[in-house]
Amino acid sequence: MEGVKNLVKDYLIFCGFEIAMLILSTFYLKKYNLLLKENFRGKKIPCCMGIILSLSWVIYLLQIFFHNSNAKWLVLAISMWFISFIGLLDDIFGDNKSKGFKGHVIRFIKDGEFSTGLLKMVSVPVVIFMSSVILQKEIDESVFYAIFGSLCVNLFNLFDLRPGRCIKVLWIFVMLLSFFMHFDSTAVVLLALTIPFFIGDLREFYMLGDAGSNAIGYLFFLFLTNSYSKTYNSPLIWAAFVVVFGLNVLSEHISFSKVIEKNTLLNFIDMLGRKN
C-alpha cells in the first residue's frame, strides 16, 4: 500500500511539473511568436512541445537512478534525451524538401545536402546501439536493437500528422501488448504522463513535433525490449519487428492518413476528441 501511495505521489508531482511547463512554454512561444508552425488546418501553434513530455520522462528516470543507483536508468534517461533532442533539431531546422528514408538519402547523393532528417537516420541508431552496448549486450544484439529502435522511432514520426494521433497509437499498441507482457510501475507512470500532454495536443494548443514523436517511438521500443532486458530471440520481439518493419516499408508507398480516413473504424478512433 505504501508503494502505491509513493507511486501516486510521484505521478502527481511530475504531472504538475509537466502541466506547468506546458502552460508557461505555450504562452511564451505564442506571445513572442517563436517556434510556431502551421498545423494541418493552417493554424500556427508551437511546433516542438514534445520536448517537455520527454523532459518529464527523463527527470522521472533520473529520479529512479538517484534512488536505487542502477546505471540502467541513467543510460535510459540520457538516450531518451538525446533521441528527443535530435527530433527537436529537426523541428527547428528541418524542411519539407525530402521525406522518408529514400528521400533523405537521394537528397544527400544528388545535392550533397545533409538534412536534419538524415542526421536523425544516422544518429538515432548510434544512440540506441551505444546504449545497448553500455548495458552489456552482445554486438549482434546491439545492432539488431539499433535497427529495431530506429524503425520504432520513425514509425511514430509517421503517425504524428494529426492532433493526438501519435499518442493514441501508442496507447492502442500498449493495450495490445498487455495481453503478452507485463508493464511495471515505471512503465505505468511514463504512460500516464502522456495524458496531460495528450489533452493539449488534441485541442491543438501545440504540436508534439519530432522531439515528442521520437521520444514516444523510443519509449515504445523500451516497452517491447523491457528496457533492453529481453533477448532478441524472443518470439514477441521478432513479431513486433516484422510489424514495425512492414509498416515502415508501406509508408514509403502509401499515406497512413489516407488509409485512416478511408477506414470507418480507424477514422472514428482518429477523430475521437478532435475538433471537427
Automatic annotation (TrEMBL):
<feature type="transmembrane region" description="Helical">
    <location>
        <begin position="114"/>
        <end position="136"/>
    </location>
</feature>
<feature type="transmembrane region" description="Helical">
    <location>
        <begin position="50"/>
        <end position="67"/>
    </location>
</feature>
<keyword id="KW-0472">Membrane</keyword>
<keyword id="KW-0812">Transmembrane</keyword>
<protein>
    <recommendedName>
        <fullName>Glycosyl transferase, family 4, conserved region</fullName>
    </recommendedName>
</protein>
<feature type="transmembrane region" description="Helical">
    <location>
        <begin position="73"/>
        <end position="93"/>
    </location>
</feature>
<feature type="transmembrane region" description="Helical">
    <location>
        <begin position="205"/>
        <end position="224"/>
    </location>
</feature>
<feature type="transmembrane region" description="Helical">
    <location>
        <begin position="12"/>
        <end position="29"/>
    </location>
</feature>
<keyword id="KW-1133">Transmembrane helix</keyword>
<feature type="transmembrane region" description="Helical">
    <location>
        <begin position="171"/>
        <end position="199"/>
    </location>
</feature>
<feature type="transmembrane region" description="Helical">
    <location>
        <begin position="236"/>
        <end position="256"/>
    </location>
</feature>
<feature type="transmembrane region" description="Helical">
    <location>
        <begin position="142"/>
        <end position="159"/>
    </location>
</feature>
